[in-house]
Amino acid sequence: MVHSELVDLETKLRDAQLRPTKQRLALAQLLFSDGNRHITAERLHSDAMEAGVAISLATIYNNLHQFTTAGLLREVVVDASRSYFDTNVAPHHHFFHEQSGTLEDIATSDLTVDNIPPLPEGTEISSVDVIVRVNSVRG
């Protein structure tokens, strides 16, 4: 990692009120240095092991949730047993490719949500997240 990248990641963590520990910096480097990603905790753990970062899966989960709470990541729950962490925290939606288990971004401008039912009393919409599940068509 180049020194300026390390400084940028340290700043990013500090700005999010997270202490830039060695493990957090290593995870931040894996998460943020190659463009936007959709990643599971298990995949990040595998990436960390391949990069020589000794870290437990439990620590990966803890840090992913801390990064999410701090606004650095967005958790995308695909089903009760599968969550992805998205480095793109801007409002957008997703295609979920069921066969490959991958997510693909959909720009908010490419999808319109109409006919939202009346909201429960005393509530307001904070966001609308759409996951469009897709399968390959066999021709």
Question: What can you tell me about this protein's structure?
Answer:
It is found in: Cytoplasm. The protein is an alpha+beta fold. It has 2 domains: 3-85, Winged helix-like DNA-binding domain superfamily/Winged helix DNA-binding domain (Arc Repressor Mutant, subunit A), CATH 1.10.10; 90-134, no CATH class. The chain is built from 4 helices and 6 strands. The protein has helices at residues 3-15, 22-32, 41-50, 57-69; strands at 38-39, 74-79, 82-86, 92-97, 102-107, 131-134. It has a 3-stranded antiparallel sheet. Helix 1 (3-15) crosses helix 2 (22-32) and helix 3 crosses helix 4. The N and C termini lie far apart (46 Å). The model has no long low-confidence stretch (mean pLDDT 92).
Short key terms for the protein model shown above:
single chain, 139 residues, Arc Repressor Mutant, subunit A, 3-stranded antiparallel β-sheet, 3-stranded mixed β-sheet, 4 helices
What structural class should be given to the helix and strand makeup? alpha+beta
Percent helix, as a range, is: 25-40%
| Overall structural domain count | 2
Specify the number of helices.
Answer: 4
Rg, Å, rounded: 17 Å
The average pLDDT value, as a whole number, equals: 92
Major beta sheet summary: 3 strands, antiparallel
Secondary-structure element order, N to C = HHEHHEEEEE
Q: What coarse outline follows from CA principal-axis ratios?
A: globular
CATH topology of the largest domain: Arc Repressor Mutant, subunit A
Strand runs, count: 6
Terminal CA distance reads: 46 Å
Strand residue percentage = 15-25%
In the CATH hierarchy, what is the architecture of the largest domain at level 2?
Answer: Orthogonal Bundle
Keywords: Cytoplasm, DNA-binding, Iron, Metal-binding, Repressor, Transcription, Transcription regulation, Zinc
Subunit structure: Homodimer.
Subcellular location: Cytoplasm
Family: Belongs to the Fur family.
